[in-house]
Specification:
Order of helices and strands: EHEEHEHEHEH
Pfam family, one: Isochorismatase
Number of helices: 5
Shape: globular
Structural class: alpha/beta
InterPro entries: Isochorismatase-like_dom, Isochorismatase-like_hydrls, Isochorismatase-like_sf
Helix content: 25-40%
Keywords: Hydrolase
Protein name: Isochorismatase family protein
Distance between the termini: 24 Å
């Protein structure tokens, strides 16, 4: 569903734009996703709305991801979980480190948003079918109005990306391009 309105208390939630994940080959240039996320972050800050920068630094325990006979993963570089510098993280941004696909599970994200009176989340980042979709589903279940910045998300798998955009997100969120979101923010001032 197309964007109908921005709430009075939205937050931008940027998913997994970090050194390690942005090194994967994606279907859309990750540099464009980072740039659009940076533009949105700058605008949200300028309008006094929270910016949440989420990174992933672990994985769910158990055998669910790799299977019983999978080899141990290679050690990650020390800066793998560091947010990309182009996001221009600011001291007032909320930093959430997760160890699951979604940003709400086993983190303080909901409490942080509730404390700031947030009613709507705008999501960007990667991967569309994993971190973004899992966070969108959980945000919806927590009662937030969810908006996907459709040109500020990407995935390593084109079919999975399209499935999220065409089948999953319309059931639980609204969507808009970055320019539309920037215009909606400016129109409210």
């Amino acid at each position: 569903m197309a964007l109908t309105t921005l709430d009075q208390s939205p937050a931008l939630v940027v998913i997994d734009l970090q050194n390690g994940t942005t090194a994967y080959p994606t279907i859309h240039p990750v540099s464009e996703v980072i740039e659009r996320s940076r533009q949105l972050a700058r605008a949200f800050r300028a309008h006094g709305h929270p910016v949440v920068l989420v990174n992933v630094a672990g994985a769910a325990p158990g055998r669910t991801d790799a299977g019983r006979n999978a080899p141990a993963p290679a050690p990650r570089p020390a800066d793998w979980a560091d947010l990309v510098e182009d996001l221009d993280a600011q001291p007032d941004d909320l930093l959430i480190t997760k160890s699951r696909w979604g940003a709400f599970h086993d983190t303080s994200l909901d409490e942080q948003l509730q404390a700031r009176g947030v009613t709507q989340v705008v999501l960007t980042g990667l991967a569309t079918s994993m971190g973004v979709e899992s966070t969108a589903r959980s945000a919806h279940e927590h009662g937030y109005h969810v908006v996907i910045a459709t040109d500020a998300v990407t995935d390593v798998d084109a079919e999975a990306h399209e499935n999220s955009l065409r089948r999953i997100f319309p059931k639980l969120s609204e969507s808009a391009a970055t320019d539309e979101l920037l215009a909606a923010l400016d129109a409210r001032s």
